Amino acid sequence: MKGATFGEVFAVREFRVLFGSFVLLIAGDVIKMLALAVLVYERTSSPGLSAAAYMAGWLPFILGGLLLLSLADRVPPRALMIAGELIRAVTCLLLAYAGLPVWALLALVLVTGLFSPVFFAARAAMLPEILPGDAFVLGRSVLNVASASAQIAGLAAGGAFLGLAGPSGALAVTAALSVVAAAVLRAGLPHQPARGAARGGAVRETLRVNRRLLADGQVRGLLLAGWLPCVCLAGAEAMVVPYMGGQGQAGVVLAAAAAGMAVGEFAVGRFAAPTLRERLSLPLAVLLGIPWVGYAFGPEVVWASVLAGVATAGLAYQLGLQRRFVDAVPEEVRGQAFGLQSAGLMTGQAVGAALVGALGEAIGPGPAIAVAGGGGILVALALAGVLRPSPAPYPAR
């Protein structure tokens, strides 16, 4: 079956709106967390508190994903996304100008961050509605590439804003980006009703639907296939800085990893037909682990960068799972399903980084990276039954 094209994807007005607001969201979040970390460090001179501030925006993603995701299907998606942008704008202004003590700054970020997975889920669930069939998979590929690019741009812009206006000014810039994104969403997206009806409290409903999704063998298998290889990848990447001796060369290796991901997503999304893309899921998932094994031989920065870039190109294996995941999930809980997918992915990456970090303490960073790569190969092979597409024909939409 012939796949969609980038031109067809970007011809959809609603996708252009989601794309533009998504880039603003990712770049703004990077600037916000960077500015908050600097602000906390300026007030406390504590590296530990500064690091905690940088991670504070991501930690509640796990709890929110477990308890609040049903809101993604119970509230109209446009209203939910706009609310997310406005909450972020207000949060940034309070962080910048309210004069809150450090504990209150961190508490504010943690509390407002509980709803982040809900806002992300609303955006993800709208994508297959505006891009049917293979266009949805290509749209996900475009957003994945945009996410990596926006993170790099956000770090560069955040550094510039911090130098010019300090952390408060950088936070004000993030608030402005959020207001612009809210206006873009309001003007560019049509109103759509909520997918599901309210059935009791949001927490109880979230837990009920999470159990329902995880009890479905097909959905559970696709979730695990999306999570587990990335656990090993996150563990390997977490060891890059200590492997390179804490020097600036680690930034070169991590940049190569980001570039490899972008190239892999683009190449598979653009040039592989839908059925081929699904057949590539297993070999690409195996590829995600193989190059990291080479770190056992102690490569210097050039070869370390090459290996990292080749490995992360394998992340394109997830494109072959996307159509199957949408088909397996009931439409009325699609928002929560995408939120559960994201929450599990972030949780798994944190666990992978912690486990491989502990292993690195015992055997050294290079061998730990190699073990993570070997684990990634074994995980991909163990999931072969899920990663291989079923013989059923690719459905027409």
Automatic annotation (TrEMBL):
Membrane-related topology note: Multi-pass membrane protein
Regions that span the bilayer: 17-41, 53-72, 103-122, 170-189, 221-244, 250-268, 280-297, 303-321, 342-360, 366-387
Cellular component, GO annotation: plasma membrane
Chief place of localization: membrane
Subcellular location: Cell membrane
Classification via CDD domains: MFS_MefA_like (cd06173)
Matching Pfam families: MFS_1
Protein name stated in the entry: Putative MFS family arabinose efflux permease
